[in-house]
Amino acid sequence: MNSFLEGQIALVTGGTKGIGKAIADKLGDGGAQIIVTARTEPTENPNGYYFIAADLAQPESANIVAKEILDKYGKIDIIVNNAGGNLGPGGGFSTLSDEHWNNELQLNLMSAVRINKALLPTMIEQQSGVIINISTYVAQQPIWDITMTYSVAKAALNAYSKALANEVGSKGIRVNTVSPGAVRTQLMQDFIENLAKSSNTTVDEAFKLVMSKIGDIPLGRMATPEEIANLVRFLASPEAQYITGSNYLVDGGVSSAI
């Protein structure tokens, strides 16, 4: 599969670290030309990916990113909407303001909606394209006192992804969703540390709390970013050309639903 994406232009939002970086690396290994976005340029870029600084929670950013991509490359073949995060405080409904809800929706839903809207006309014109939206398993199993805003925003992303797949499938464009469970990333570590501070506990106690909320993982561990990226690479490949409108849980078996 070393050259199965040769000549393809791929955008990975939030692509400089964690799951996003692993996805960029896997698609790059497949021969794609990689574009990554993040709010801050990484200090190291060993693979030479084309970088665009963007805060995709800001409404104007998507059009700026799309224009730069199309001016430089003239097309886009793969979009991976990975930018996102659990921004809201814990504690349930009473702790959450309108601003918390709006911030979560802007980053976890509207960033993908806007990027897709800005780049889909090019995909429609070329009658081909792949969009993969990165969601989370807690969109289906929300943890009320930790992930309420995040779960709701990603659940909306799931519904949007299915609707978009139905709309653009006849135009040669596939849209799928990947929903990771617990993944061992710096973002997860930062989340646990912030939870420890807000709850006045130790990092170890906060980690145990998160894992108790998640439940027992049948495989006995968190995923690695590369394990999420392996599925994204497959979904972007010609081998997945009949797959669209699907949502794939990658959670080590922790979800109680099928």
In terms of quaternary structure, the protein is single chain
How far is it from the N-terminal to the C-terminal residue, by CA? 30 Å
Shape, per Cα inertia axes: globular
The name of the CATH architecture is: 3-Layer(aba) Sandwich
CATH class: Alpha Beta
Enumerate the strands of the largest sheet in spatial order, edge to edge or round the barrel: 3-2-1-4-5-6-7
Low-confidence stretches: none
Sheet with most strands: 7 strands, parallel
Number of helices: 7
Share of β-strand residues: 5-15%
Q: Provide the succession of SSEs.
A: EHEEHEHEHEHHHE
Fill in the CATH topology: Rossmann fold
User: What's the count of strands?
Assistant: 7
Question: How would you explain this protein's 3D organization?
Answer:
Helix content is 44%, strand content 14%. The mean pLDDT is 94. The chain has a seven-stranded parallel sheet with strand order 3-2-1-4-5-6-7, with helices on both faces. Strand 4, helix 3 and strand 5 form a beta-alpha-beta unit. The chain has one domain: NAD(P)-binding Rossmann-like Domain (Rossmann fold), CATH 3.40.50.720. Helix 1 packs across helix 7, helix 2 packs parallel to helix 3 and helix 3 runs parallel beside helix 4. By secondary structure, it is α/β, with parallel strands linked by helices. 43% of the residues are buried. This is SDR family oxidoreductase. Belongs to the short-chain dehydrogenases/reductases (SDR) family.
